[in-house]
Structures are given as structure tokens and as C-alpha cells.
Amino acid sequence: MPEELKRDLDLLLLTAIGVGAMVGSGIYTLPGLVASVSGPLSILAVLAMSAITGLFVYILVELGREFPRSGALYYFARESFGELAGFITGFSFYVSCFVGTAAIIYSFVLYASFFAEGLTLTPLGTAVALLLLAAVTAVNVLGVKHGALLNLALTVLRAAPLLLFTAVGLLSLKLANLEPLAPYGYGSIALAIAFGFWMFVGFESIVLVGDEVKRPAETIARSALATVLIVSALYTLLIASFVGSVDWAGLGLGEGDWQALSSLSSPLADAARALGHEWLAWAMVLGAAISSAGCFSDWVLLQARVAYALAREGRLWGRLSSVHPRYRTPAAALLFSSLLTGAVIALVPSFPSVILIAMIAEFVPYGVSALSLAA
User: Fold this and answer.
1) DSSP state of 276
2) Which of 49, 295, 20 is nearest to 191 (CA)?
3) Where are the alpha helices (DSSP H) in the chain?
4) Can you tell me where the transmembrane regions are (predicted)?
5) Could you tell me which of 278, 269, 230, 247 has the C-alpha nearest to residue 171?
6) pLDDT given at position 78
7) What is the DSSP string of 166-199?
8) What is the structure's pLDDT at 61?
9) Per-residue b or e along 170-208, where b marks 16 or more CB atoms closer than 10 Å to that residue's CB
């Protein structure tokens, strides 16, 4: 009898995976861009993004109840539309996973360069990225619980700076910043949603590890609800504090010049520095680096489950469906997926190109999953 994956994930660990997959580098880099196109209306845009995410999560949870298996998006498409649709969906999502993981590691190296000059996307930076990838892969081979506990710790560490900024920002709130509510018209909310939705990507992670969840039908549903509520509350309060506390003079910008915020490469750090809190600015940079590290740790774990599911159904090399006899993890799928991610890091040292490839590949599984519930 073949070895099966070990059901080690409880509500806390699964929720940490969900939150960890969503709270990545995006929340540290996108607030300025979102606010630049809609001003204070960006607060309502985040609420709208939360509602859209909640709808997608509901769809995935309902499908996950029916197919509580690792690599669930493949099974959703296959059962609804047949083998070919399942393969295209599963393969597209797998490409988005290992390419997207490379993009997240790139983000980590870029943020780490603030503390270690000379990293960026140089040969040294690439070497550091590959070493980190190898270390995180090794932890995940030792057991899903080890990987999940690592992610839980990193999730707590990455949330702390965001909560600090939110508290300081709300204490520095200027009501004048909230008027007018829609300086560029109410239609600008659509553009804010388009730019900002990257902050919410990763919500599908909860259903990707169904084979390793204790009492999956109950745990996945509760974890999904907790994940959406936690991330939505965190993002809404953070954007409100950012918009409400902007110190225009401190940033060297004209009063109410929201569009100029798009030029801020590190909006949260820049906003904190403008308020006179240099310590908070450095906390934001450190938090961004930790967020990227935590997010790629999460996706190293998750991308292997997609490869495992495809191999189990004969859609990838059969060896990838094997389970380590001692650790009961998809060790071969973990190693193979990390090798692909490493190849992307080494051969495509262009952050925008990698992001573009990952996002294009991700459109297919999202759309097919939504159609699967109606089928």
C-alpha cells in the first residue's frame, strides 16, 4: 500500500498558511499606487477587494468540501469539464506557482539589499536566493508540520510591523486628508481595485493542502472564514491609517497631490519617515523582507502539492507522486518544484518579466474554478 500524506494541519496552522500566502510584499509596496489613483476612496476599494476575495474563497471552499485533496484546483476543473480542462488548469496553476515563487524570492532579495548592500539581482543576490530556497525546501521535506510552523512564526513576524504602522497612523490621523473622498471621481475605484488586487492573491492556498488537513470539511471552511476576516481587517485599517496620516510636507509633496504617491518605492517606510518615525520606517523595510521570506516559504510548500496531485493522476512524471516513507511528505515534488523555481531565478533575472508570466498563468485556474461551481 503506497504511503499517504500525513494529516498534520489543524485550524491554526491552516489559517497561518492562508494568511501567510496573502500577506506578502504587496501590502508593503502597493498602498501608494492604490491611493494615487483614487485618494481616500482607496479605503472603500480595499473593502470591495475584500468582498470579491470573500466570494472567490466561498467558491473554493464549496468545491474544497467536495474535493478535499492536495492540488484541489486540478480536481475542480477535471470533475466539471473533463480531463483536458483539468490538465490545462492544473498545469497553468503549477507554472504560476513555481514562477510566482521566484518572483517572491526576488522581492526578498531586493528588500534585503537595504541591509546588505550589493545584493539586489546580482550574482551574489541570486546565490543568496538559491541558498534560501534550498533551506526552506529542506524544512518542508522534514514534514508539513515543520513547514507550517515555520510559516506561522514568519506570519506573526510580518504582521507585527503592519500593526505598528496602523496604530501610529491612526494616532496621526488628519481628517483633512479624507476630503474630498473621491478626488478623481467614484469611477476611480475600479482602477484602485485592479492595481490593488495583487495584495489579496494567495487565498486559494487553503484548499491546496486538503490531503494534509485534519477533518478537512470542517477545518477548511473555518480557516477560510478566519483568513478572509483577518486579512480584510488588517488591510482596511492599514490603508485607512496610510491615507489618513499622509504628511504631505514631510514627503515633499503638494497638499492633496495623491497622484504623486505612485512615485514612492517604499510607501509605508516613506510615510513613517515623513511623520518623523525613523524607527518605524526601518521596521517597515524589515517587515517587507520578512513578508517576502514568509510568503515564499508558504509557496514552496504549496507548489509541491500541485505537482504531487498532477503526478498522482498521471499528468506529470509519476515519481513526483511518491511520499517520503519517513516524513510522509511529497519530497520528490518538493525537490522538483524548487529546482524549477531555482531555474527561473538563475535564468530570468527580471522581476517584471517573472511577475507577468506568473499572473498570465494564474488567470486560467481562477476563471475555471469559478465556472466549476456553476457546472
Assistant:
1) T
2) 49
3) 11-22, 26-29, 31-38, 42-66, 72-81, 83-112, 123-141, 144-171, 188-196, 216-245, 248-251, 267-274, 278-312, 331-347, 351-374
4) 12-35, 41-63, 84-109, 121-142, 149-172, 184-203, 224-243, 279-302, 329-348
5) 247
6) 84
7) HHHHHHT--GGGG-SS-TT-TTHHHHHHHHHGGG
8) 81
9) eebeeeebeeeeeebeeebbebbbebbbbbbbbbbbbbb
- Computed on alpha carbons and rounded to an integer, the radius of gyration of the chain in Å comes to 20
Task: Give the per-residue pLDDT at 347.
Answer: 87
Length, in residues, of the chain: 375
Listed as ranges, residues in the chain with pLDDT below 50 are: 1
Class of domain 11-374: mainly alpha
Q: Which three cell numbers stand for residue 335?
A: 525537490
Q: What angle do CA 199, 202, 206 make, to 5 degrees?
A: 145
pLDDT number for residue 69:
66
213, β-bridge pairs: 9
Could you give the count of Cα atoms lying within 13 Å of 12 in the half-sphere of its Cβ?
Answer: 6
- Asked whether 248 and 261 are in contact (CB, 8 A), the reply is no
- The answer to whether the CB of 121 falls within 8 A of the CB of 145 is no
Q: Say which amino acid occupies 375.
A: A
d(CA 218, CA 224): 10
